[in-house]
């Protein structure tokens, strides 16, 4: 080891996700099977090249304005970032500075632990119950902050808004972040509680329902005070994060409410159909309200099915980790993609 | 104060830079007056919208490949990020974990202090001499790492490569980062020392010589070991940072060597002409090797000149801070823009 290596940050080695080059059916990262709103293409094609040589607007003002208008909030209630990962990471850094542990579920988005470690935030994982449901009472104890996704990942289970509200209401001395990456496929958003609770932040993304994973746009909506704290933190150490292409493309994606709603409907319809089909061939599926299905088969190892699908060019997600070793997470693709998946699985089960 | 506010990170409040809406001459943020290479526009106009719905390649492989080919290094020697601010911040986080202070100049890029504070890295500022030159011997003492820009900002002074090499050679137990945002306008890059010193990282950007501040692209070049540490850190907590538009646009900007070199020549020519003109009307200018000129007038307050220019729609940068209160930093624009600036200043001096 070189002497300078002793001061290098040690992290869990990471292997980038599979990026198959050949033509495959990609149901492994919860991307949307449909392209973004047509306005996005028009916006990118008519980008002013002279604008490119200039730094982007550090406030991403046009995008903030479009989001504020869409969600009927004020512009000072919106914070944008490079994907919801960037927004969530910034929230951890800004709001979770207590000595008490923050709380999040044991089965949940894996990056919460990573950011807590990165910023040296103590945390405690609250186990979901045997049906993979978040137990709201676990979050009533003293803590340094709360975060969970709704619907939760990778289960897809949605917590009714009155239960979400109970958690927010019982934690008014700390910040509660509801990570709503998949909310558009689910039910009521906690956004309607923003004016009622000063400790609430709702985070959403353009990567799922808005078909724009490739552009890296996420946002937080809250009250002006918390948004100001977020912006102060962000501006203080990286002023220019959203590039010009993301800003102009994002604005157009937000504007097209009709395209967005139709796309979401199509995915929900395919999800509900695919879930029934999976159950027909023996799978047990959680009640997913996201754009993926979390499914296990009582007679076949998830690992084996995962490998079989992969060998045939259908990629789904499998972790094999504690409590979920029998589950695969299957992104909802087009009807044709789901038919191919089900037909292949059914063939194995005959 | 709400009770949750006690755990919110306190930072220096930040006011975003002036973004004048009316038509002005913008010489305040070191942007390039010329548009990016023509291929950039073509690449954005022909972007595959189906690619947009998918997560970008987390390795930004095409861009890494283009940079490796341009600089004649291997692909595992290149790290890319969302502007060089992102790359530098990631370097601080990854490499500066010693208990000993890192060293950088007192007059330099203001974000070094910010990242050191953010990551709780001890630091010590080494004063530049009375001619604003970095004193290389100051960096020969024991430290936790070294970073400085070459040319330095906001002075524009270039340190000859043999002096840079002395600092690298005398610090082989720690990481030395040379921040070369402006190197293309200057002289020899430390890139030629990459194979000779295992402790060296060179960071560059697309925002200046490549006219792409709006796309947020920066990169580090080093040996495969240090690049692996950087990638491990980055992937471990945010896998997808470079969006698809930045990747395709970046590739085209790198490919067009001729356009790049011609653009740099034009700016150097305008800089050297403008510097002589400023001297003709009484300014004393440092020997700038960047795309800006750091200038003071013995008889006029910099603040007054800054305000005068601003009132006439010409924006330059003025800090008024310790040691540089008499200086303005003037970005090199087009010849016409510089003529307008000089003519206005000359009018005041008659």
How would you describe what is shown here?
Two copies of one chain form a homodimer. The first copy, chain A, is an alpha/beta fold and 350 residues long. In chain A, 37% of the residues lie in helices and 14% in strands. A five-stranded mixed beta sheet of chain A has the order 2-8-7-6-5, sandwiched between helices. Chain A has a four-stranded antiparallel beta sheet with strand order 9-10-13-12, covered by helices on one side. In chain A, strands 1-11 form a two-stranded parallel ribbon. In chain A, helix 4 crosses helix 7. Chain A is globular. The model of chain A has no long low-confidence stretch (mean pLDDT 94).
Short structural description:
Chain A contains 11 helices and 13 strands. Chain A has 350 residues and is α/β, with parallel strands linked by helices.
Q: Please bin the fraction of helical residues of chain A.
A: 25-40%
What distance lies between the first and last C-alpha atoms of chain A, to the nearest angstrom? Answer: 55 Å
Number of helices of chain A: 11
- Would you report the number of β strands of chain A? 13
Oligomer: homodimer
* Portion in beta strands of chain A: 5-15%
Largest interface: A-B, 84 and 85 residues
Mean pLDDT of chain A equals: 94
């Amino acid at each position: 080891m070189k002497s300078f290596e002793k001061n290098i940050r040690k992290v869990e080695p990471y292997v980038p996700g599979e990026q198959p080059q050949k033509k495959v059916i990609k149901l492994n990262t919860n991307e949307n099977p449909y392209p973004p709103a047509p306005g996005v293409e028009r916006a990118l094609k008519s980008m002013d090249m002279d604008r490119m040589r200039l730094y982007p607007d550090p406030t991403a003002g046009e995008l903030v304005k479009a989001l504020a208008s869409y969600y009927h909030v004020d512009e000072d209630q919106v914070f944008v970032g490079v994907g919801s990962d960037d927004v969530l990471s910034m929230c951890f850094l800004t709001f979770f500075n207590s000595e008490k542990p923050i709380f999040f579920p044991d089965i949940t988005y894996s990056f919460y632990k990573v950011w807590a470690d990165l910023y040296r935030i103590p945390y405690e994982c609250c186990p979901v119950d045997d049906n993979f449901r978040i137990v709201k009472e676990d979050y009533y104890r003293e803590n340094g902050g709360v975060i969970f996704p709704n619907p939760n990942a990778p289960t897809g289970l949605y917590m009714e808004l009155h239960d979400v509200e109970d958690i927010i209401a019982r934690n008014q001395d700390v910040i509660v972040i509801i990570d709503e990456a998949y909310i558009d496929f689910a039910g009521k958003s906690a956004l309607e509680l923003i004016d009622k609770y000063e400790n609430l932040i709702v985070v959403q993304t353009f990567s799922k329902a808005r078909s724009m994973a490739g552009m890296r746009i996420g946002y937080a909506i809250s009250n002006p005070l918390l948004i100001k704290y977020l912006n102060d933190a962000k501006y203080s150490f990286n002023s220019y994060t959203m590039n010009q292409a993301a800003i102009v493309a994002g604005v157009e994606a937000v504007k097209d409410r009709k395209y967005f709603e139709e796309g979401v409907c199509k995915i929900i319809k395919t999800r509900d159909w695919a879930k029934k089909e999976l159950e027909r061939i023996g799978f047990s599926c959680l009640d997913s309200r996201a754009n993926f299905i979390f499914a296990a088969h009582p007679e076949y190892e998830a690992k084996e099915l995962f490998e079989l699908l992969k060998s045939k060019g259908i990629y789904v997600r499998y972790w094999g980790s504690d409590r979920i070793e029998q589950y695969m997470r299957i992104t909802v693709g087009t009807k044709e993609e789901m038919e191919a998946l089900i037909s292949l699985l059914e063939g194995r089960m005959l």
